[in-house]
Design brief:
The protein is mainly beta. It has helices at 56-64, 77-85, 93-97; strands at 2-3, 19-25, 28-34, 37-42, 45-52, 66-71, 101-103, 110-112, 117-129, 132-144, 148-149, 152-153, 161-165, 168-171. Strand 4 and strand 5 (45-52) form a beta hairpin.
Length: 177
Protein backbone atom coordinates (compact mmCIF):
# COMPACT_ATOMS: atom_id res chain seq x y z
CA UNK A 1 0.00 0.00 0.00
CA UNK A 2 1.05 3.59 -0.53
CA UNK A 3 0.61 6.64 1.67
CA UNK A 4 -2.30 8.84 0.60
CA UNK A 5 -2.94 12.54 1.17
CA UNK A 6 -4.94 13.00 4.37
CA UNK A 7 -7.38 15.31 2.54
CA UNK A 8 -8.66 12.11 0.87
CA UNK A 9 -8.75 9.95 4.03
CA UNK A 10 -12.53 10.37 4.44
CA UNK A 11 -13.04 8.86 0.98
CA UNK A 12 -11.68 5.53 2.21
CA UNK A 13 -15.00 5.01 4.02
CA UNK A 14 -17.24 7.58 2.31
CA UNK A 15 -19.00 4.84 0.32
CA UNK A 16 -20.12 3.14 3.51
CA UNK A 17 -18.21 -0.12 3.90
CA UNK A 18 -18.18 -2.24 7.00
CA UNK A 19 -14.76 -1.75 8.61
CA UNK A 20 -12.75 -3.87 10.98
CA UNK A 21 -11.61 -1.68 13.87
CA UNK A 22 -8.35 -2.61 15.52
CA UNK A 23 -7.09 -1.26 18.82
CA UNK A 24 -4.46 -2.03 21.43
CA UNK A 25 -3.82 -1.12 25.03
CA UNK A 26 -0.76 -2.57 26.77
CA UNK A 27 -0.67 -6.26 25.77
CA UNK A 28 -4.34 -6.50 24.77
CA UNK A 29 -5.52 -6.01 21.20
CA UNK A 30 -8.52 -6.90 19.09
CA UNK A 31 -10.09 -6.63 15.64
CA UNK A 32 -13.84 -5.96 15.56
CA UNK A 33 -16.22 -5.48 12.59
CA UNK A 34 -18.10 -2.17 12.84
CA UNK A 35 -20.74 -1.22 10.30
CA UNK A 36 -21.69 2.06 11.95
CA UNK A 37 -18.91 4.32 10.78
CA UNK A 38 -18.75 7.56 8.85
CA UNK A 39 -16.60 10.39 7.67
CA UNK A 40 -17.24 13.54 9.72
CA UNK A 41 -15.04 16.16 8.04
CA UNK A 42 -12.42 16.17 5.32
CA UNK A 43 -10.34 19.11 6.62
CA UNK A 44 -9.23 18.24 9.22
CA UNK A 45 -9.79 14.54 8.41
CA UNK A 46 -12.28 13.31 11.03
CA UNK A 47 -14.17 10.02 11.26
CA UNK A 48 -16.63 8.51 13.74
CA UNK A 49 -17.54 4.99 14.79
CA UNK A 50 -20.30 3.74 17.06
CA UNK A 51 -19.37 0.93 19.45
CA UNK A 52 -21.37 -0.90 22.09
CA UNK A 53 -19.97 -0.35 25.59
CA UNK A 54 -19.96 -4.12 26.15
CA UNK A 55 -17.56 -4.62 23.23
CA UNK A 56 -13.91 -5.25 24.14
CA UNK A 57 -12.69 -2.79 21.50
CA UNK A 58 -14.64 -0.05 23.33
CA UNK A 59 -12.47 -0.59 26.43
CA UNK A 60 -9.26 -0.56 24.39
CA UNK A 61 -10.16 2.67 22.57
CA UNK A 62 -11.06 4.40 25.85
CA UNK A 63 -7.69 3.44 27.32
CA UNK A 64 -5.43 3.89 24.28
CA UNK A 65 -7.17 6.95 22.77
CA UNK A 66 -6.62 5.52 19.28
CA UNK A 67 -7.90 2.96 16.78
CA UNK A 68 -7.39 1.84 13.21
CA UNK A 69 -10.01 1.40 10.47
CA UNK A 70 -9.30 -1.58 8.20
CA UNK A 71 -11.20 -1.76 4.90
CA UNK A 72 -11.49 -5.31 3.53
CA UNK A 73 -13.02 -6.80 0.41
CA UNK A 74 -15.80 -9.37 0.00
CA UNK A 75 -13.43 -12.33 -0.25
CA UNK A 76 -12.88 -11.93 3.52
CA UNK A 77 -16.56 -11.84 4.56
CA UNK A 78 -16.44 -15.20 6.39
CA UNK A 79 -13.41 -14.06 8.37
CA UNK A 80 -15.10 -10.74 9.15
CA UNK A 81 -18.23 -12.52 10.38
CA UNK A 82 -16.14 -14.85 12.53
CA UNK A 83 -14.34 -11.86 14.09
CA UNK A 84 -17.72 -10.45 15.08
CA UNK A 85 -18.92 -13.68 16.68
CA UNK A 86 -16.28 -13.85 19.42
CA UNK A 87 -14.67 -11.44 21.85
CA UNK A 88 -11.05 -10.41 21.44
CA UNK A 89 -10.86 -10.52 25.22
CA UNK A 90 -11.09 -14.33 25.02
CA UNK A 91 -9.78 -15.22 21.54
CA UNK A 92 -6.81 -14.32 19.34
CA UNK A 93 -8.80 -13.31 16.26
CA UNK A 94 -5.71 -13.24 14.03
CA UNK A 95 -4.84 -16.86 14.83
CA UNK A 96 -8.51 -17.88 14.59
CA UNK A 97 -9.04 -16.37 11.12
CA UNK A 98 -5.60 -16.98 9.62
CA UNK A 99 -5.25 -13.30 8.81
CA UNK A 100 -2.03 -11.36 9.32
CA UNK A 101 -1.22 -8.03 10.92
CA UNK A 102 1.46 -5.36 10.96
CA UNK A 103 2.15 -2.29 13.08
CA UNK A 104 0.53 1.05 12.28
CA UNK A 105 2.88 3.93 11.45
CA UNK A 106 1.50 6.69 13.70
CA UNK A 107 -0.50 4.96 16.44
CA UNK A 108 0.16 2.03 18.77
CA UNK A 109 -2.17 -0.46 17.14
CA UNK A 110 -2.03 -3.23 14.55
CA UNK A 111 -3.65 -3.22 11.11
CA UNK A 112 -4.69 -6.11 8.87
CA UNK A 113 -2.35 -6.83 5.98
CA UNK A 114 -5.34 -8.06 3.96
CA UNK A 115 -6.83 -4.53 4.02
CA UNK A 116 -7.17 -2.51 0.83
CA UNK A 117 -7.25 0.69 2.88
CA UNK A 118 -6.27 1.72 6.39
CA UNK A 119 -6.96 4.87 8.42
CA UNK A 120 -5.01 5.35 11.65
CA UNK A 121 -7.00 7.48 14.08
CA UNK A 122 -6.39 9.43 17.28
CA UNK A 123 -9.41 9.90 19.53
CA UNK A 124 -10.52 13.52 20.01
CA UNK A 125 -13.97 13.11 21.56
CA UNK A 126 -16.28 10.45 22.95
CA UNK A 127 -20.04 10.92 22.99
CA UNK A 128 -21.90 8.43 25.16
CA UNK A 129 -25.54 7.69 24.38
CA UNK A 130 -27.13 5.02 26.56
CA UNK A 131 -25.24 1.77 25.86
CA UNK A 132 -23.01 3.01 23.03
CA UNK A 133 -20.01 5.24 22.60
CA UNK A 134 -19.51 7.35 19.51
CA UNK A 135 -15.79 7.84 19.02
CA UNK A 136 -14.81 10.86 16.96
CA UNK A 137 -11.21 10.76 15.80
CA UNK A 138 -8.67 12.53 13.63
CA UNK A 139 -7.09 10.46 10.87
CA UNK A 140 -3.34 10.89 11.36
CA UNK A 141 -2.17 8.46 8.67
CA UNK A 142 -3.92 6.71 5.80
CA UNK A 143 -2.84 4.24 3.17
CA UNK A 144 -4.53 2.29 0.39
CA UNK A 145 -3.62 -0.15 -2.34
CA UNK A 146 -3.66 0.64 -6.06
CA UNK A 147 -7.46 0.43 -6.23
CA UNK A 148 -7.46 3.94 -4.69
CA UNK A 149 -6.27 6.43 -7.34
CA UNK A 150 -6.46 10.20 -7.66
CA UNK A 151 -8.24 10.47 -4.33
CA UNK A 152 -11.02 7.95 -5.18
CA UNK A 153 -11.73 4.24 -5.02
CA UNK A 154 -11.89 2.66 -8.47
CA UNK A 155 -15.49 1.43 -8.35
CA UNK A 156 -14.88 -1.08 -11.13
CA UNK A 157 -12.17 -2.81 -9.08
CA UNK A 158 -13.25 -2.83 -5.42
CA UNK A 159 -15.68 -5.19 -3.71
CA UNK A 160 -16.05 -3.85 -0.17
CA UNK A 161 -18.38 -5.46 2.35
CA UNK A 162 -21.62 -3.71 3.37
CA UNK A 163 -23.67 -5.05 6.29
CA UNK A 164 -27.44 -4.96 5.85
CA UNK A 165 -28.22 -6.46 9.27
CA UNK A 166 -28.14 -9.88 10.93
CA UNK A 167 -26.13 -12.16 8.61
CA UNK A 168 -26.91 -10.29 5.37
CA UNK A 169 -24.08 -8.67 3.43
CA UNK A 170 -23.67 -7.16 -0.02
CA UNK A 171 -20.75 -5.79 -1.99
CA UNK A 172 -20.17 -2.89 -4.36
CA UNK A 173 -20.68 -2.61 -8.08
CA UNK A 174 -19.96 0.54 -10.04
CA UNK A 175 -23.03 1.91 -11.77
CA UNK A 176 -22.91 3.31 -15.31
CA UNK A 177 -25.31 6.19 -16.00
Amino acid sequence: MKKIDLKYAYRLINHGPLVVVSARYNNSETFTPISWNMPVEHEPPLVAITVSKENFVDQLIHRSKSFCLNILEAEHVRRIIRMGEVSGKDVDKIAMTGMSKAECKKINAPYLLQSIGVAECELIKTVTIEEVDIFIARVVYARANDKFKNGLWDGSRIRTVHHLGKYKFVTTKELKY
